[in-house]
Amino acid sequence: MLAHRARTGLLTVGILVAVLWAVFFVNLLTGHVLTGHFAIEPRRVRGLDGILFAPLLHGGLPHLVSNSLPLLVLGFLTFLDGLRRFVVALGTSWLVSGLGVWILGGGLTIGASGVVFGLFAYLIARGFYNRNVLQILLAGVVFLAYGSILWGVLPVFGSNISWQAHLFGAIGGVAAALILKRRPAPSGADRLLR
Fold this sequence. Notes:
It contains 9 helices and no strands. It has helices at 2-29, 33-38, 50-53, 61-79, 83-104, 113-130, 133-146, 163-179, 188-193. It is an all-alpha fold. Helix 1 (2-29) runs antiparallel to helix 4, helix 6 (113-130) runs antiparallel to helix 7 (133-146) and helix 6 (113-130) packs parallel to helix 8 (163-179).
């Protein structure tokens, strides 16, 4: 069962990353026309569609590469919890990051780093919400491997890095962990009261 889920997770997350690369090359070949149409443009109605599409776009090869590996690793680890939990964690991180950038962003914003921060925060928070020792241990390993990215939630003025995407992506990841918090099974007395 776990081996099947692992294969499916690797395939699913691999396809997602392949889509990012395909969109990157289409955008490059069209003179970055997709960026002009699908970036998040803060506080502008025409920038709202960027909430859905901006994570698929990247400004250059270094930008894309820096998001690809963490997305593969963190997405795969999230998928091991199951497809539904992966979709909720990914979707919540994606949406909250995009909304936060649209409300508080400083300029055109693209990239999947908000989603990466969301999956990171989900993996850190879920073990504590679930009180699961294995998930807490995994959170420790994830933190040791990727904990330095947390500096990215701090404002860096004069930079073209969207700390808003990072911060709100992380908030989305914590929210997903709360939404997906495992409920304890009702005891015999609890079942009688229902």
